[in-house]
Automatic annotation (TrEMBL):
It is a multi-pass membrane protein. GO terms for cellular component: plasma membrane. This is ABC transporter permease. It holds the Pfam family BPD_transp_2. The lineage of its organism: Bacteria, Bacillati, Actinomycetota, Actinomycetes, Micrococcales.
Length: 326
């Protein structure tokens, strides 16, 4: 449907050919094209790649990144960025471990992880919206705060977590879809509904597109900013739970790879870094692409030292292509 409510005219073969020849079309579909292309390459190079077991491993491995990427997408759509997302997740991991070590049950430990991560998210939002400090500086500062708290609270030592329930959760699922991926998919679906079926989503896109114009229409852009950073914090807590379930311990060391990959997945997914344009599906495909890339290189016995290099090249190419997006 167009803006007047009438059906959009169908494109003929010539119209589709013209689109495919346009670099803008390739930029718009870079993530899905890259994912399909990598899958074809790795399938031809490794007989293991397309097996059910490996596909399940890819989906489970991508689950944490997908959840973090959804949170990062909310922030970037509002014309911001969250550099603290990985450190916030680490703080949530430690909060989980400390609560569990004190005899709290799984539910209380999960709530502790989400609560600790949410505090950092709320702090980010308040400082950006009310303190009017650049989001880059704020989240860079809270990155250090969250990382430091995780090390201080844990004394720099991992906390072992032995739970049959967590083991069963991380190792079971439905067909090739492991439970962690099902959780990530549920998060993505809810995020899509919030963005495209609610007033909040409309206000979010308006804030990211033009803060001044949004304010002129009566939208509280400060509330939107606080909300998106809070959402990012909450989802970092959810990712912390998935990480603990996967590793079986609360590790205090921050994993900056998750930060870099969450931003990379958003860029690959076609979300505008200046806000106001994007989707949830694109960044999820971007997260899967990065996971497939790492998985394929591992199957080919490529040294892990080369993997960040490959990811970096892919991200730079995606950033270049994004300049041609419509």
């Amino acid at each position: 449907m167009n803006s007047l409510g009438s059906p959009r005219p169908r494109k003929d073969a010539a119209g589709w050919q013209q689109d495919v020849k346009s670099i803008g079309w390739w930029a718009e579909h870079a993530a899905i094209i890259g994912l399909i292309g990598l899958s074809i390459v790795f399938t031809s190079l490794s007989p293991v790649f397309l097996t059910a077991g490996n596909i399940q491993s890819i989906l489970v491995a991508a689950s944490i990144l997908i959840v973090l990427t959804v949170g990062q997408s909310f922030v970037i759509l509002s014309d911001g960025i969250d550099l603290s997302v990985a450190a916030t997740m680490t703080l949530g991991v430690i909060a989980f471990g400390m609560a569990y070590a004190q005899g709290a049950g799984l539910l209380v430990s999960m709530l502790a992880a989400i609560a600790a991560s949410s505090v950092i998210g709320i702090l980010n939002g308040v400082l950006v919206a009310k303190g009017r400090i650049t989001d880059f500086i704020v989240t860079l500062g809270t990155l250090s705060v969250a990382s430091g708290l995780a090390l201080v609270l844990s004394d720099g030592k991992p906390i072992s977590i032995t739970s049959i329930e967590l083991i069963n959760f991380s190792t079971h699922g439905v067909l090739i879809f492991g439970n962690p991926f099902i959780v990530a998919a549920a998060v993505a679906i809810i995020a899509h509904v919030v963005l495209f079926r609610t007033r909040f989503g409309t206000h979010l896109f308006a804030t990211g597109g033009s803060k001044e114009a949004a304010q002129a229409t009566g939208i509280s852009t400060a509330r939107i900013k606080i909300a998106v950073y809070t959402i990012s914090g909450v989802l970092a807590g959810v990712a912390a739970i998935l990480l603990v379930a996967r590793v079986g311990a609360s590790e205090p060391a921050a994993n900056t790879t998750f930060l870099l990959n969450s931003v990379a997945a958003v860029v690959l997914g076609g979300v505008s870094l200046t806000g106001g344009r994007g989707s949830i599906f694109g960044p999820i495909v971007g997260a899967l692409l990065l996971t497939v890339l790492t998985n394929g290189l591992t199957l080919m016995n490529v040294s892990q030292f080369y993997q960040p290099l490959a990811v970096g090249v892919v991200v730079i190419l995606a950033a270049l292509l994004s300049r041609f997006q419509k």
